[in-house]
Amino acid sequence: MRDLQLVIFDCDGVLVDSVALACDLLAAMLSEEGVPTTTEQSLLQYKELLLADVVDLAERELGRALPGDWLERYEMRRAEAFRSKLTAMPGAAEAVRGVSAAGVKVCVASQGKLEKTRLSLALTGLDGLFSKDALFSAYDVPRGKPHPDVFLHAAAAMAADPSRVAVVEDTPSGVTAAVAAGMHAFGYTAGSDATALRRAGAEVLRSLDELPLLLGLA
Fold first, then answer.
1. How far is residue 121's CA from residue 115's CA, in Å, rounded to a whole number?
2. What topology does CATH give the domain 6-17+87-214?
3. pLDDT, tens digit (0-9, with 9 covering 90-100), for 7-63
4. What is the enclosing helix (H) or strand (E) of 187?
5. Burial group, residue 110, by CB count within 10 angstroms (0-12, 13-18, 19+)
6. Pick from 191, 147, 168, 164: which is nearest to 44 by CA?
């Protein structure tokens, strides 16, 4: 990319290895409520959704409402799992540092809440790589991914032209959102299908170590 101004990183599955932890817990807690779910099914059905959409989908399948405190309990148990098991993705810190060292701005735009992103970055030691005002959430815009809202919001806040922004995502819905925003999308394949990412419009990224080179920064 020429005249690159900003690189937006997704958090879960790109910067931190949180997806399997979250989906494993989600499967267990849905199964407890009468919606038998394996971790694999959780990954396929719920990975790309906002938690509110997860609840709606589960309640339709269950035929009744989940307990009123179910979501709060899930978020608490997920935070506990993160505190004991969460790690940074291989090469994540090096990739962010490589982009920043080239004078290009970096930020995080996640489908999750800001509190979750802050916790994830702090637990993995990645929080020092991003300024406090460079974290963005789909909960702060009208629509989550695959809509472009959170990426356009992040670009505006970071004073970047969308056409001069690159996005690193690990899901087809995230790639779709980046493409809809007019940004260059990289699809990180660590836990995702390369073909699906490519079909959504991404340039495939198999290792975060490759990112500065693919951006022409190395």
1. 10
2. Rossmann fold (3.40.50)
3. 999 999 999 999 999 999 999 999 999 989 999 999 888 887 888 899 999 999 899
4. strand 184-188
5. buried
6. 191
